[in-house]
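Reminder: ligand-aware prediction takes two inputs, not one.
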Amino acid sequence: MSAAITRLLSTSIVKKQIVAITGLGLAGFVVFHLSGNLLIFLGPEAFNGYAEKFEKLGELKWLPRAGLIVFAILHVYFTVLVVLENREARGSRYVVHNDFGSTSWAKRTMILSGLIVFFFIFIHIGDFTLPEKSGAPTVVPGVADGESLGLYGLVWNSYLVWWRALFYVIAVCCVGMHISHGIQSVFQTLGINHPVYTPIIKRASIAVGVVVASGFSAIPLFVLIVRTPPV
Ligand code: HEM
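Here is what comes back for the chain with protoporphyrin IX containing FE:
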C-alpha cells in the first residue's frame, strides 16, 4: 500500500467514513433481503422461485457475496479501530470526542446490537444457506403426501421451534435498532447537520429500523401462529 493511502486510512475521519459507507451498503442488502423474504407470504412457489433465480447465477453468485463479505469485514475492522482510537483519546488530555458523533447510550447500543448481529449472521447462514434444500428437513408436518417444500419448507420448519423463532425476533430487532442508529450516525459523520433536515432524517431512520425489525419478525411469528403452511 502506498504511503499516501496508509496516511489517509490512518486519519480518524476517513475511518469513520469507511464505517459509514460500508454500513449503508450492508443496510441496502438487508432491505433487499427483506423484500425477497416477504415473498414467503405468497407461498412456496414465489419464495423458492426468488431463491432459485439467485442459484441460477451459478459461480457468478460469488460476486455479490464477495462484495458483501468485503463490506462486512471493512465495517467491523474500521469500527474496532475507531472505538479503540476514541478510548485512547479519552485517556489523553488533548482530545475528547464521541465515536461516530453519537451519545454514549446510542454508542453502547450500537456496539451491543452490532455484536449480536455479527454472531447472528453465522448462525443464520448455518440455518438456511448451508443445509440441503431437499429431503426430510424441508417436509412440513401436515402438508399433504409428505411433499418437500424446498427452501420454504426448511425456513418454515425452523420457526416451528418456538425458541428459534424467538431468537430470530430478538436478532432482527437488534438489526433494526443497529440500522436505525447507524443511519443517524452516517449523516453526523458526513457532517450533515441541518435544523430542518436532521430531525426528518432521524424520523426516517427510526421508520427504516421499525420496518426492518417488524418485516423480518413477521415471518417467524406468522409460522408460529399459523403452524401449517397455507399451500
Ligand atoms: C426472519 C428473518 C430472515 C429470514 C426468513 C431469512 C432467510 C434467509 C434464507 C432463506 C437464506 C438462504 C438463501 C439461500 O441459500 O438461497 C438467507 C441467507 C442470508 N441471510 Fe437471511 N433471513 C432473515 C434475516 C436476515 C437478516 C436480518 C440478515 C442480516 C442482518 C440476513 C442476512 C443473510 C445473509 C448474509 C445470507 C447469506 C446470503 C448468501 O447465501 O449469499 N438475513 N436468509
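The pocket of protoporphyrin IX containing FE is lined by residues 30, 33, 37, 51, 54, 65, 117, 121, 124-125, 128-129, 151, 155, 168, 172, 175, 216, 219-220 (CB under 6 Å). The mean pLDDT is 92. We will return to this case in the review session.
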